[in-house]
Design a protein that fits this description.
single chain; mainly beta; Immunoglobulin-like; 6 domains; 6-stranded antiparallel beta barrel; 54 strands
Length: about 900
């Protein structure tokens, strides 16, 4: 027998970011799964895990070869690189990309506003791209569940294109090797078998041929990439275009209209069971030339829960990534396909799901030069949603991505096909059942007779063959006894003693004892109040106090006071004791009250009432007339009415202070015995050494035997924030081609700090921390502020400012590597701050004599390591003369010019 209780990791959880852990599977033998890493660093006994195969579809799509197959398992042993499962897995092929994922299980879970995601898919590791979790109760979605763009990777940008604008071979094949950049663009990743792409055989990584649901790359000069696919087909990439196509346009059509990704046939049951297969969205193919990469596909979401509760503007998202940018002389990448969302939930609530395809990349056409036209990217296909029951489709979006824009009659791409959804999902559990009780621990209260039967609700079981036998059991001493005639999902039963209850479920020779619930049985509640017979001076308020009740449960109670008016009881206050207000006047009035106590959660009820309470004339007009105040330093006088009543003599005043409106302390300063009162900061410290919080003031009026407390007024003395001070000091230096900078400010003692700038493009890693990094600095002056303020305070914030000046790189016009320790190398000042750099040196005969893919070196003027020292790539000294350079920073910023070499 196996109970899921052992794998539940907490009663309630707040979760965000990435909750799964991943490992690549290298072998499967019986119930033992072998990993590529030490299993104990990730998995433990009783863990719930997901075994899923990511690839394996043949390129023609005729065989799935277990691609997309998944199963949930329970871990029974961990040893070295081996994980033993409760039951042997079904058919998986470890020669493909198969991963084992740790799946957390929760009683209830709340996703914070930071949201939930998964590790991005990594083909080289064979891991990522999947978010999976199980919740016994409610999954509250306060932040997005978002795996958009975390599925199959789009084809990388293809780079330089030196090929022809030809419609003839060698431009007509569906697959090309990685170094054939002058023939075709890179394909997007897909679920195709690893023997095809991109593993052992790298001859097919480029070309218009799709990698099943991965989009194909463009063929020929400046053609566009196809969109990835999943629930819907990806759109085709745009044609190459070198003027109007010639008579072989039919061949051109064949060559470019079929580079889109291929949709999985979820709607054809004979091909695959959608409950047993899950696919990531295919990546879009890349165009040719210095164009754009294809968009990544969406990832996979698998959730098992009792109930969804979506906050407004939150959703489950598995969208394909769109392609940004618009090259002028190159083809654009295709959009990524939407991913897959698999949900086994009993109450979907206001479910919101996005599985949209990403948009293909745009291209720019030079109107006056038709030879610079090119193909846009195809739109990504929509994704796939499968639920365990029919859900409201109003907030389900699964549209295919739009094709890229090209203002030309030729070279057009096409839109991705919409995805689709089904409602017949059956989650795949292997060797165990999902079985738990929904009803929490319950208390039942009895009087002299036993109460009505109690209903215990339980989950719809999952796993097995779908046919379930139920058996409810009770225990009072550790021995479980079957309840007769209890083969039902829920149980309705009378209980006369404290009892533990559980549900045993059997299906397909699997038995699960499930979780248990406690039924507590209690007796009546004690209830006494005082006074029950008294005469009072007229006064505005009075409190009838009740005893501390006993019985009826665990000592938690709800209260309801009622007053007898016009021969009927009406509700007054829901508190342990009853503050009452009596009607003013000259006549004697008689009042009667009662208190009703209900024990929680059992619901035992007790009612007791007072005898007559006789009330005589009261003090009137004891009211504070000035309003609440929120101040930084100065405070206005609290004003109050002049009271009347009592014995008719001048009343006595006593002003009081409180921090909780229940416990009041007499003030003793100069005007604390006057009609009006002016609070002082120092006075407030009679209650606390800190006065920066809400204080409540009221006036007590005494006249004769009558005493009356006024309403209260709230005054808050706000605190000044700490002085803002930036510690980072550039000493007047400029940042040479450096667009990020570490910043540090003095940590505020009072208040909270925030980094900000009037420049919209600047981004701070941790804007609310005193230590942060600013990104996306712009050339020129970048003014940055550090602000410290106390939240919702009347005291002004404090500011400090720093200016970061960014300048371009400095490229020398000459150098002399003659050994005199001066100007020995071609050093580009600022290049050391770039993320990537590439230098090409060409002599006057147009020969490339030196090339560096990572051209950056030390800022030490006496150290030429990493810079060009006047030698060829092979180490040979080059003759004096003028040389031309092309220098590329960060992959897209290009500098061209010449430099003089003189030894």
């Amino acid at each position: 027998m196996m109970s899921l209780c052992s794998s539940i990791i907490a009663q309630t959880n707040r979760i965000d970011d990435i909750v799964n852990e991943y490992a690549k599977v290298t072998g499967i033998s019986g119930s033992i799964v072998t990993l590529s890493t030490n299993a104990s660093s990730i998995f433990a006994v009783s863990d719930t895990v997901l075994l899923i195969q990511m690839t394996g579809v043949t390129i023609d799509g005729n065989e799935v070869k277990n691609a997309g197959r998944y199963e949930f398992h329970i871990v029974t042993d961990v040893n070295g690189q081996n994980v033993t499962l409760l039951a042997p897995p079904g058919s998986f092929d470890p020669t493909e990309l198969v991963q084992l994922i740790r799946v957390p299980s929760y009683k209830n879970a709340e996703i914070t506003n930071k949201g939930l995601t998964c590790q991005p898919w990594k083909w080289a590791d064979g891991t990522g791209g999947v978010l999976a979790l199980m919740v016994e109760g409610t999954l509250t979605v306060n932040g997005n569940i978002d795996v958009s763009g975390r599925g199959f990777k789009g084809g990388d940008a293809s780079g330089e294109y030196a090929g022809d604008c030809s419609f003839d071979p060698p431009y007509n094949r569906s697959g090309y090797a990685a170094n054939d950049f002058d023939l075709a663009g890179n394909k997007g990743e897909g679920a195709v078998t690893t023997s095809y792409y991109p593993g052992v055989n790298s001859a097919n990584v480029r070309g218009f041929g799709k990698t099943y649901n991965g989009g194909g790359g463009g063929n020929g000069k400046w053609s566009g990439g196809g969109g990835g696919a999943n629930g819907g087909y990806g759109g085709r990439g745009g044609n190459q275009l070198c003027g109007k196509p010639a008579s072989d346009s039919v061949f051109l059509l064949i060559r470019y209209l079929y580079n889109e990704g291929y949709a999985f046939k979820y709607d054809e049951p004979f091909w695959m069971n959608p409950s047993k297969h899950a696919f990531m969205g295919g990546g879009g193919g890349a165009g040719t030339g210095f164009g754009t990469a294809g968009g990544n596909g969406g990832g996979i979401v698998i959730i098992v829960a009792q109930k969804f509760q979506f906050l407004e503007n939150t959703a489950i998202k598995a969208n394909g990534a769109s392609v940004g940018g618009a090259p002028s002389e190159a083809g654009s990448g295709g959009g990524g396909a939407g991913g897959s969302v698999l949900l086994s939930v009993e109450d979907y609530g206001e479910i919101k799901v996005e599985i949209e395809g990403g948009n293909g990349g745009n291209v720019n056409k030079e109107i006056n030069n038709p030879n610079h036209s090119q193909g846009a990217g195809g739109g990504g296909g929509g994704g796939f949603l499968i639920t365990s029951k029919t859900v409201n489709q109003a907030n389900i979006t699964k549209t295919g991505g739009e094709q890229g824009i090209l203002t030309s009659e030729w070279g057009r791409a096409s839109k991705g096909e919409d995805g689709f959804s089904r409602s017949d999902f059956q989650v795949q559990l292997r060797g165990f059942l999902r079985n738990f009780i929904i009803t929490p621990d319950t208390t039942v209260c009895y009087g002299d007779d036993y109460s009505e039967p109690v209903t215990i609700r339980a989950s719809q079981p999952l796993g097995g063959d779908g046919n379930y036998v139920f058996r409810w059991q009770t225990s009072t001493n550790g021995i479980w006894i079957d309840i007769e005639n209890s083969n039902t999902r829920h149980l309705t039963h009378k209980f006369i003693h404290d009892t533990i209850v559980r549900r045993v479920v059997t299906s397909e020779n699997i038995t699960d004892e499930g979780s248990s619930v406690k039924i507590n049985v209690f007796r009546k509640v004690t209830n006494e109040i005082a006074p029950t017979d008294t005469t009072l001076c007229w006064q505005e308020s009075f409190e009838i106090r009740g005893s501390v009740p006993t019985g009826g449960g665990n000592g938690t109670y709800s209260y309801q006071w009622q007053e007898f008016v016009n021969n009927q009881w009406i509700n007054k206050s829901a508190s342990k004791n009853l503050p009452v207000e009596f009607s003013s006047g000259n006549e004697i009035n008689t009042y009667r009250y009662r208190r009703i106590i209900t024990s929680i959660p059992a619901g035992c009820v007790s009612v007791v009432e007072t005898s007559d309470i006789i009330v005589q004339p009261v003090i009137k007009y004891n009211a504070i007339t000035s309003g609440d105040q929120k101040v930084c330093d100065d405070v206005e006088q609290i004003k109050a009415d002049k009271p009347e009543g009592g014995d008719g003599n001048k009343p006595d005043y006593q002003w009081q202070i409180s921090t909780d409106r229940e416990n009041w302390k007499d003030l003793t300063d100069e005007d604390a015995d006057q009609q009006n009162y002016t609070p002082q900061k120092e006075t407030t410290q009679i209650l606390s050494s800190e006065y920066y919080q809400d204080r409540y003031y009221r006036r007590i009026v005494t006249s004769g035997a009558c005493k009356n407390a006024s309403n209260y007024v709230t005054i808050r003395f706000d605190q000044h924030p700490s002085k803002a001070k930036i510690l980072t000091d550039l000493m007047g230096d400029s940042l040479k081609f450096k667009f990020t900078m570490d910043l540090e400010a003095e940590r505020p003692v009072v208040g909270a700090g925030k980094w900000w700038s009037t420049m919209e493009k600047l981004d701070f890693d941790r804007p609310n921390e005193w230590i942060t990094k600013v990104n996306y600095l712009q050339f020129g002056d970048n003014t940055i502020y550090w602000e410290v303020k106390v939240s919702d305070s009347k005291c002004d914030p404090s500011y400090d400012m720093i200016n970061l000046k960014v300048v371009d790189i400095m490229i020398p016009t000459g150098f002399s590597p003659n050994g005199d320790d001066y100007n020995q190398c071609f050093r580009i000042v600022g290049a050391e701050n770039a993320t990537s750099s590439e230098l090409i040196i060409i002599d006057r005969y147009n020969n490339v004599v030196f090339e560096s893919k990572s051209f950056m070196g030390s800022s030490d003027l006496n150290n030429c390591t990493g810079w060009w020292d006047g030698r060829s790539s092979s180490g040979k000294e080059l003759p004096n003369g003028i040389y031309f350079y092309q220098f590329t920073l960060n992959g897209d910023k290009v500098y061209k010019g010449y430099v003089a070499l003189k030894r």
